[in-house]
Amino acid sequence: MTPLTNFPNGISVNGVEILPGWQIASKAVTYDGGTTNAQGDYDGTGNPTTLFTVTGDVMVIVFGKCTTLLAGASATVEVGVASNTAGIIAQSTATDIDAGEVWRDATPAVGVESLNDPMVIIGGADIIETIATANVTSGAITYYCLWIPLSSDGAVAAA
């Protein structure tokens, strides 16, 4: 698979600009919620976890690519900002997120998912992942954030 890369004025594939003005950030997450305060420990000090640090005002499209199926009896996962923890990706049961799926909404999709609903984040609200109900004891997701600045100081970086 040819990786998406940042281009001076947007995202490119093989040097061809495909999304003018947009940039991309990614963060790999591995869950070990059975360990106190580790990623996936719903009542630990690391929950919620900051996925992406936001500066200023931006428009974003966030999705996850599950690389190892998630485990954790009744555990739920959601992505948003502190004032709306499921505002970007709706709360989903962790065990419904399987390897090879794209997670963009409450129903992960196998292999393909529409990314046609960008979100606006204002005032530098960081993008967070919240684990609820129970621990996510194993699994892995790589999160991607496609973003474009709306304000002169708008930016996104992996946390």
Gist of the model:
The chain has strands at 5-7, 10-13, 16-20, 23-30, 49-55, 58-71, 76-81, 84-93, 101-103, 109-110, 119-121, 127-132, 138-149, 155-158. The protein is 0% helix and 55% strand.
Task: List its traits.
mainly beta, 0% helix
What does this entry look like structurally?
The chain is an all-beta fold. It has one domain (28-158). Helices cover 0% and strands 55% of the residues. It has strands at residues 5-7, 10-13, 16-20, 23-30, 49-55, 58-71, 76-81, 84-93, 101-103, 109-110, 119-121, 127-132, 138-149, 155-158. The strands form three sheets. Strands 4, 6, 9, 10, 11 and 13 form a six-stranded antiparallel sheet that branches. The chain has a five-stranded antiparallel sheet with strand order 8-7-12-5-14, with no helix packed on it. The mean pLDDT is 90.
- Any idea what the radius of gyration is? 15 Å
| Count of discrete structural domains | 1
Multimer state:
single chain
Q: Can you tell me the residue ranges where pLDDT is under 50 for at least 5 consecutive residues? A: none
Distance between the termini: 25 Å
Secondary-structure map:
Layout: E1 5-7, E2 10-13, E3 16-20, E4 23-30, E5 49-55, E6 58-71, E7 76-81, E8 84-93, E9 101-103, E10 109-110, E11 119-121, E12 127-132, E13 138-149, E14 155-158
Antiparallel strand pairs: 1-2, 2-3, 4-13, 5-12, 5-14, 6-9, 6-11, 6-13, 7-8, 7-12, 9-10
